[in-house]
Task: inverse folding
């Protein structure tokens, strides 16, 4: 459930001087503060109104950047590269490893709200394939064992371990 309040969203906008040019940064902070890793339609409308920008502009940003979502997502969004250079014949195998390790299928979130699985296209680390990305961190040369360790670290909130597993 969203833990945002109007006061919190206003505070975030104030931090960026209520500047429409800072819309991406504002939306990122609102998404992080939401507790659901998303910018809901309700908050998108609120922000558009308060910054006096068209709602279409806010949606344009939310739909353009894959880091945004209007739907609830887990704390860690695992984006699994499905492009040919790093996937070759392993892309579906890697998906199966993540689904097995997390217990959910692609596009779903674990019941504890920790992990969401998504497909993505090239993240610019083709030489490390197969690859997955979580936030800014890239995880390459994936094996079943490494995938299990990544999912476990996400679930435990073990950022240090995640850093060790990242490239
Ligand atoms: S094709 Fe997967 S990172 Fe480029």
Result:
């Amino acid at each position: 459930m969203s833990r945002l309040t109007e006061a919190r969203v206003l505070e975030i906008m104030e931090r960026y001087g209520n500047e429409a040019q800072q819309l991406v940064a504002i939306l990122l902070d609102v998404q992080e503060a939401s507790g659901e890793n998303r910018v809901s339609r309700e908050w998108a409308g609120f922000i558009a109104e308060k910054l006096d920008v068209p709602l279409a502009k806010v949606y344009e940003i939310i739909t353009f950047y894959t880091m945004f979502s209007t739907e609830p997502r887990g704390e860690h969004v695992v984006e699994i590269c499905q492009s040919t250079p790093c996937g070759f014949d392993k892309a579906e195998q890697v998906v199966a490893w993540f689904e097995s390790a997390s217990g959910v299928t692609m596009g779903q979130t674990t019941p504890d709200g920790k992990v969401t699985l998504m497909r993505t296209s090239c993240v610019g680390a083709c030489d490390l394939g197969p690859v997955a990305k979580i936030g800014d961190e890239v995880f390459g040369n994936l094996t079943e064992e490494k995938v299990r360790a990544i999912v476990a670290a996400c679930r435990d909130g073990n950022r240090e371990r995640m850093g060790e597993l990242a490239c």
Remarks:
- Residues 76 and 115 are 5 Å apart (CA to CA).
